[in-house]
Specification:
Oligomer: single chain
Distance between the termini: 31 Å
Structural class: alpha/beta
Number of strands: 15
Bound molecules: iron/sulfur cluster
Number of helices: 15
Order of helices and strands: EHEHEHEHHEHEHHEEHEEEHEHEHHEEHH
Helix content: 40-55%
Largest sheet: 9 strands, mixed
Length: 375
């Protein structure tokens, strides 16, 4: 059982905080689409005939593609892979692209899950982040999608924005509950090197993210989600019962996936591959039948560290027996020794051989995971 990720490397404009790979020029779009279809054919052997349970269009902004272009990509996938009849097929979309006509065509093409990049329901936040949409487009597109029969919708929200007060954050969350979406991913604003936001913070044009305020907003997030019966199945991901992202859960559960398109990563249990993060180089290499990705065999300690980092963030936790059988008893002994102080501080808990973070521990997830690493 495996998944396919497709990276669509185009955006209308650059959001100030974003360090993903994308281009704001669509000049290479036709050549990119042709190269992507070729890559689908070339990479067919990678998953060794495993059934495809999830397909995920990410980016970039996949909703910039015409629905006919998405359909052609899906047709190519269906002709090369065995796709489960109930496969989860997600499209990341921005509100300004989701007209009623577009939503209708997306539904017809077999997309059954929408991941809408709302980020905030406040125009001042959207302008601060240089998003291409406004609040009314955000509200309207969710209502239109629901009317047209989309019953599995996730939205992204961002907290920790310098001018976002606690009250405003609570209102943003309330708006998400009012819309009755099935899933919410909420991330803290991060200031990544090389982004416009990094430059603004460095030159004093923007306040830096206040870590205490961000931590406070994370606590509000967890409490509000709980109050509204959303399960926190991963630190940043919350869902109504039964609406976990199958695609992302598979990443966190070490399942195999094939990543297609510039900058996409792949994993088959033994190695990782990552495609070149440059649209023109990607197209040129594929057309010239030259290598377009690098490969790294995963060393046991790296595999263990990745396992700890990802599983600790989820409700499924870090399984002691899996560590012992997969990596060996010296890794298990290391984990037990390093985890002990955190058990004593009530930041980690152990139930039926599975280690998970406590509510307090969730605030320190990355620090705790890195202390459990094998170096
Ligand atoms: S739309 Fe998404 S991928 Fe594109 S710049 Fe904004 S955050 Fe980045």
């Amino acid at each position: 059982l495996a998944g396919i990720y497709l990276h669509i490397p185009f955006c209308k404009q650059a959001c100030h905080y974003c360090d993903f790979h994308f281009s704001t020029s669509l000049a290479t779009k036709p050549a990119f689409l042709a190269a992507l279809k070729t890559e689908i054919q070339l990479r067919k052997p990678y998953l060794e005939g495993q059934e495809i349970q999830t397909i995920y269009f990410g980016g970039g902004t996949p909703s910039l593609l015409e629905s006919s272009e998405l359909q052609e990509i899906l047709d190519e996938i269906y002709s090369c892979f065995a796709v489960a009849s109930n496969a989860e097929i997600t499209l990341e979309a921005n509100p300004d692209d989701l007209t009623k006509a577009k939503l209708k065509a997306l539904k017809e093409s077999g997309i059954n899950r929408l991941s809408i990049g709302i980020q905030s329901f406040r125009d001042e936040d959207l302008q601060f982040m240089n998003r291409a949409h406004n609040t009314s487009e955000a509200l309207q597109c969710v209502k239109d999608a629901q009317e047209l029969g989309f019953d599995n919708i996730t939205i992204d929200l961002i907290y920790g924005i310098p001018e976002l007060s606690e009250a405003a954050w609570k209102q943003n969350l309330q708006q998400a509950f009012n819309l009755n979406v099935q899933h919410v991913s909420a991330y803290c604003l991060t200031v990544e090197a090389g982004t416009a936001l990094h430059h603004f913070v460095k030159t004093g044009k923007s306040k830096p993210v206040n870590e205490d305020e961000a931590a406070q907003q994370f606590e509000i997030l967890c409490a509000e989600m709980k109050k509204h019966d959303f399960e926190q199945y991963e630190i940043s991901n919350f869902c109504q019962s039964g609406f976990h992202s199958k695609h992302n859960s598979a990443y966190w559960q070490q399942k195999h996936y094939l990543g297609l398109g510039p900058s996409a990563h792949s994993f088959n249990g033994k190695s990782r591959q990552w495609n070149v993060s440059n649209n023109r180089k990607y197209i040129k290499s594929i057309n010239a039948q030259q290598p377009f990705f690098e490969t790294e065999t995963i060393a046991p300690e790296t595999a263990y560290n990745e396992y700890v980092l990802t599983t600790l963030r989820t409700i499924w936790g870090c399984d002691a027996e899996f560590i012992s059988t997969q990596f060996g008893d010296q890794y298990l002994a290391h984990l037990q020794q390093e985890a002990q102080p955190y058990f004593e501080q009530n930041l980690l808990q152990l139930k039926s051989g599975v280690i998970t973070l406590t509510e307090e521990g969730k605030l320190l997830a990355d620090k705790i995971a890195s202390d459990l690493f094998y170096t």
